[in-house]
Amino acid sequence: MKRSILPIAVLLLGLAACDRAGVNPPTEPANPIQTTEVAPAAPTPPGVGPAMPGAGPASFVGLWAGNAAWCANTTGPERPITISTLRFEGYENSCAITSLDQVQDGYELTLACQAEGEATRERVRLSAQDDVLRLTWLNRHDAVVLLARCPAPAATAAPTTPEPAG
Question: How do residues 96-115 score in pLDDT, each as one tens digit?
Answer without folding.
Answer: 999 988 888 889 999 999 98
